[in-house]
Each structure stands twice: as structure tokens, then as C-alpha cells.
Write a structure and sequence with these properties.
Number of helices: 8
Low-confidence stretches: none
Largest sheet: 9 strands, mixed
CATH class of the largest domain: Alpha Beta
CATH superfamily of the largest domain: P-loop containing nucleotide triphosphate hydrolases
Mean pLDDT: 91
Strand content: 25-35%
Structural class: alpha/beta
Number of strands: 12
Distance between the termini: 48 Å
CATH architecture of the largest domain: 3-Layer(aba) Sandwich
Radius of gyration: 19 Å
Order of helices and strands: EEEHHEHEEHEHEHHEEEEH
């Protein structure tokens, strides 16, 4: 079993017998040299024009945004498009397990994790890179995908002055996205009480943008919710939901969030 990156940025995964029972399996993932722009996603139907305006305001207001969705739902595509709203003068540090983001700003520092060698040495985890990114004077931190204990470091960064940071997580709904981030943060194994982790999630995240792959193969943002506190735990209150193909909107509950969006 082997995973490698080609010079053009494509990823190649190879599995051979006896792990692959029916013969060698070769998987190639190719990425566009330039990601989809927000306008292209509106044209493709992934975003509606009003949703485009909401997301633009959220990034301009430096809200911390988590993009959730299943495998192949287009989370990274949406994350890349959201980054287009970041002003060119800001310094951005991207951290990925496999580099897929294609940011166009002039001040972008790209970091990629490294697996251990065959001898079991030289591994550099996403968590290590997130910690190191805090020393690089970033205006914003973008974590391509939160998969492990780096969730706690990402939450800490979002809570300690790095407003406007972005990340993605595998989840089937906005509510599940928060629960998954909590679980991943507990993997840091620092002995923090669950209540403290929940407080960190509620204080760090502002919006959850949920994307799904439809039955016809199209990918659409189906929900956007603000993160609120309910009974001492984080919860998602929907601002936008696509129901039966029709958008349903609701005003934010948090006055501070409303003010920041209006000022943007």
C-alpha cells in the first residue's frame, strides 16, 4: 500500500495483493490548477446568490467557519471558494494532510503533513503543523481537513485571536459536525473535561456550512447554521436550509453575529 504526490499535485494511491484481493488497484486524484471561484459555484448551483452574499459577509466579518459534509460532497471546493473572499493583504497559513487548496492571494504559506518513513521515522502530523503555524504570524489559519487531535489546537487558535479561520470536517449534518469536533479534540488526550471541550467549541466556532452530494450527483450547500450555547453545550441554529429544493432563511439569534455581518 502506497500513497504519493506527483509533481503536478495529483495524488496516487496504490494497493497490491494480498491487501487487494482481485489484483492491484491504482487510484489517481487530479486537482484543478485553479479552484472554482464563488461566482462559478453560483453558476453551477452549489450556492444561491443570497447564500453567496451571506458567506462573503461571514468571511469579511472574520467569522470562524467550519465546512462539513460527507466524502466527495465538495467541502474542499467550497473551502477554496470561501478563501477567495479573504483580502489580499492578509497572511494566510494553510495546513493539509494532502495539499489540495489553490488560494490566489499573494501572502499564502502552504504546509503539508508528512507520513512516517518505512523505518517509522520522520512523521510530521497536522497537529504539529497547526502548533507551528501559530508562530508564523498568520492573520488566518486554514485547516484543510480536521481528522484528529489537531481539532483542539485549531479551536485554541480560533479562540486566541486568529479570527476568520476556516476548516473542514467529515459529518452528516451541522449538528454532527460539532459532535465530531468535540470527539476529535478529546483525542488530544490532555485530560480536559468534556465540558471544557464543549465550551471551547462553542466559543471558537461561529458558523457551520454543510454541503451534500445530491442524488443526481450535484453538490450543494444545504444548510448554514450559527453556533450557539444551549444548556451549556454548543448547538447549531439554522440560518439557511434547503428544503425540497426551496431555501428557508432565518435571522441570527446572536446580536453580536448580526452586527458583524451587517458591518461587513
Amino acid at each position: 500500500m502506497c500513497d504519493a504526490r506527483l509533481p503536478d499535485g495529483s495524488r496516487v494511491n496504490v494497493v497490491i495483493p494480498p491487501l487487494a484481493l482481485d489484483g492491484p488497484v491504482l487510484t489517481i486524484r487530479r486537482f484543478r490548477r485553479r479552484g472554482f471561484s464563488p461566482e462559478e459555484l453560483v453558476t453551477a448551483g452549489t450556492w444561491s446568490p443570497p447564500l453567496h452574499d451571506l458567506l462573503r459577509a461571514a468571511i469579511a466579518a472574520r467569522l470562524n467557519v467550519l465546512v462539513s459534509g460527507g466524502t466527495g460532497s465538495g467541502k474542499t471546493t467550497t473551502l477554496n471558494a470561501l478563501s477567495a473572499f479573504i483580502p489580499e493583504g492578509e497572511r494566510i497559513v494553510t495546513i493539509e494532510d494532502a495539499a489540495e487548496l489553490r488560494l490566489q492571494q499573494p501572502h499564502v504559506v502552504r504546509l503539508e503533513a508528512r507520513p512516517a518513513s518505512l523505518e517509522g521515522r520522520g512523521e510530521v502530523t497536522v497537529r504539529t503543523l497547526v502548533r507551528n503555524a501559530l508562530r508564523m504570524r498568520p492573520d488566518r489559519i486554514i485547516v484543510g481537513e480536521v481528522r484528529g487531535a489537531e481539532a483542539l489546537d485549531m479551536l485554541s487558535a480560533m479562540s486566541s485571536g486568529h479570527d476568520g479561520s476556516l476548516g473542514t470536517v467529515h459529518a452528516g449534518s451541522p449538528e454532527e459536525a460539532l459532535r465530531r469536533v468535540e470527539t476529535l479534540a478529546l483525542m488530544a488526550d490532555l485530560g480536559l473535561p468534556h465540558a471544557a471541550i464543549r465550551e471551547q467549541v462553542a466559543g471558537a466556532l461561529d458558523l457551520v456550512v454543510h454541503q451534500a452530494r445530491q442524488a443526481d450527483g450535484s453538490r450543494r450547500v444545504v444548510a448554514v447554521g450559527e453556533v450557539v450555547r444551549v444548556g451549556g453545550a454548543p448547538a447549531v441554529r439554522e440560518l439557511y436550509r434547503l428544503r425540497d429544493g426551496r431555501p428557508v432563511w432565518r435571522a441570527p439569534q446572536r446580536e453580536a453575529l448580526t452586527r458583524r455581518l451587517e458591518e461587513a
